[in-house]
Write a structure and sequence with these properties.
Shape: elongated
Number of strands: 0
Strand content: under 5%
Number of helices: 10
Order of helices and strands: HHHHHHHHHH
Radius of gyration: 32 Å
Number of domains: 1
């Protein structure tokens, strides 16, 4: 089944929409983190899916030729098998009166062998197109699986503990990313993992092969598991931002300590007056 590019349908993924979503995500990542390589990973995901669709359209005549040739060969093979069996039976029937019963066994064995080998050849020819298409899809799925692991490596180095001051004091502690940037980066990783899963789902829409469907399911499980880890980190960042904002509120107004322990979104945002950078980060993370 070919991929759908332009028509609007709500029961199939539209590959054009998927590619445009990846393009927009890549542009957002490049704008927010111009010195990071996550945008390059998004570009690679786009190129893999785009090449998959382009190859499928270019190889459609090849698949059609394989289907026609295999069907023609099957017809010829079946005709030859039937002709061989008919000739053997006619020859045996003509000499039936002078042939002992045990001499029928080699003829029967030869006929069974012809039928079995013809069946094997027919099965091979019928599945030839499907196996060729499966090989192409599995190559794409293996690349998508590798890209999911690449995204996992990108998010693995982003830990909320990097925002904490070192043990020897906070005087010279300058984190590479702020809390808000950490959350933004992890959110981009989650979106990219979701789009990798969508690319795998496109392969499932073009094939009903059991091996392809199992591989697609494995990739979707992989991306979902990594995305779950990403959102656990985002949750920790939100708690960290709320804790920092609450501490700043208590430091600026000691009488508000009891209220800070039960901080509400309004109190968290009010901490921005004490420290604009931390307040802004907390507000972006907690919204």
């Amino acid at each position: 089944m070919p991929w759908r590019r332009a028509e609007s349908s709500y029961d199939h993924l539209n590959v054009g929409h998927v590619l445009r979503t990846i393009e927009r995500l890549q542009a957002r990542i490049a704008e927010t983190f111009p010195r990071r390589h996550l945008a390059d990973v998004a570009g690679t995901v786009h190129s893999v899916i785009s090449r998959m669709v382009t190859d499928a359209e270019r190889q459609r005549p090849v698949r059609l030729a394989l289907r026609i040739v295999s069907r023609v060969v099957i017809v010829v093979l079946v005709a030859l098998s039937i002709l061989t069996i008919v000739l053997a039976i006619r020859d045996a029937a003509g000499n039936a009166s002078s042939r002992p019963a045990f001499e029928w066994l080699p003829i029967l064995e030869s006929g069974i062998n012809d039928v079995v080998f013809a069946g094997i050849a027919i099965w091979f020819l019928i599945s030839l197109e499907g196996r060729w298409h499966r090989h192409r899809l599995l190559a794409t799925l293996h690349r998508l699986r590798s890209l999911a692991h690449v995204v996992d490596m990108h998010q693995m180095s982003k830990d909320a503990t990097q925002l904490l001051p070192p043990a020897d004091g906070p005087e010279h502690h300058y984190p590479v990313l702020t809390a808000a940037e950490f959350g933004r980066y992890l959110d981009f990783c989650s979106e990219l993992l979701s789009l990798i899963g969508k690319g795998a789902a496109l392969c499932a829409e073009s094939s009903t092969d059991a091996v392809v469907l199992d591989t697609v399911s494995e990739i979707e499980t992989l991306t979902t598991g990594i995305s779950r880890k990403v959102w656990q980190k985002i949750t920790l960042l939100q708690r960290y931002a709320a804790t920092v904002a609450s501490d700043l509120l208590v430091a600026s107004d000691p009488s508000a300590g009891s209220a800070g322990s039960a901080s509400s979104p309004g109190l968290v945002r009010s901490a921005g007056s004490a420290s604009p950078s931390v307040g802004t980060a907390s507000e972006q993370l907690l919204d």
